[in-house]
Design goal:
6-stranded antiparallel sheet, 15 strands, 3-stranded antiparallel sheet, alpha+beta
């Protein structure tokens, strides 16, 4: 596809080749090709700047023995941070067969899409399973120690932590199954606090089945008139959907982006 007459600033409309010998001529053209390379190449040839597309909204592949066998467990109030950055998200986290998923993970992958891409999807994340400060967690553990001195630590999950996850975190902190609350040392309390609030996990790629939901990147937004979805650099050229550099936090919002921008472009083109 190219603009008839040369540059976009010149009149003449568009010529779209649809076969070896067939061409269509149009005064207006809508590009709604998603994040495909061909669509982005067309936009670039017509004068647009392309933000490099990278996967967004993906789950984390984390082969960690602390998570093995815990698939299906959901923690409603966790915080996940990308180590070495200010990126963090809070919300539910779901343990899967391959690692971690859930709203907090998907949101972190969206805001950190480029950072994860630049790192080759090998990075460290820090999980606060209870979304509390270390000081608050320490106070809570001391309260349990005072209230249940003769009870086994493994038998009383703190902060409503799912039992199987609680047991796995205690094992990773080196707490024996026979340990009572009364006999916990300060060092052991600190280890439990760390496992709950500052656990480090290594991300070794996206979900291996490439189940990312959307793409970050595309046609730069400052080159689009959002009242009509018409290009600001190529008259008669319109855009809709994921070809644009629009990246929402869940698949539903991305569907809405496609429907809304498509409607705006259609109304403008028909006018």
């Amino acid at each position: 596809m190219h603009r008839r007459g040369g540059r976009c600033a010149e009149a003449g409309g568009f010529r779209v080749t649809v076969g070896k010998d067939e061409a269509l001529h149009a005064a207006k053209v809508l590009l709604a090709t998603g994040s495909t390379r061909r669509g982005l190449d067309w936009a670039k040839k017509l004068g647009h700047t392309i933000e490099p597309p990278v996967p967004s909204l993906f789950t984390f592949h984390i082969p960690d023995k602390r998570l093995g066998g815990l698939e299906g467990i959901s923690v409603p109030k966790a915080e996940v941070r990308l180590a070495g950055s200010k990126l963090k998200q809070a919300g539910p986290v779901l343990i899967t067969h391959q690692g971690l998923s859930g709203p907090a993970i998907l949101k972190l992958s969206a805001w950190g899409a480029r950072a994860f891409h630049e790192a080759g999807y090998h990075a460290e994340i820090i999980i606060n399973w209870i979304n509390r400060t270390a000081e608050d967690a320490g106070r809570g553990l001391r309260d349990l120690k005072a209230e249940f001195p003769r009870k086994l630590v493994w038998s009383i999950p703190a902060f409503e932590t799912p039992r199987r996850l609680w047991e796995r975190l205690l094992a990773s902190a080196g707490i024996p199954e026979t340990q009572t609350w009364a006999d916990l040392s300060r060092l052991q309390m600190a280890r439990i606090t760390g496992a709950l609030t500052k656990g480090t996990y290594e991300v070794r790629g996206q979900n291996p089945f490439k189940e990312e939901f959307v793409t970050c990147g595309g046609v730069r937004l400052d080159e689009i008139n959002f009242k009509t979805m018409e290009s600001r650099v190529c008259a008669g050229l319109y855009f809709a959907g994921e070809i644009l550099d629009i990246d929402a936090l869940t698949g539903g919002f991305n569907f809405q982006n496609a429907w809304t921008t498509g409607w705006l472009a259609g109304q403008a083109m028909a006018g």
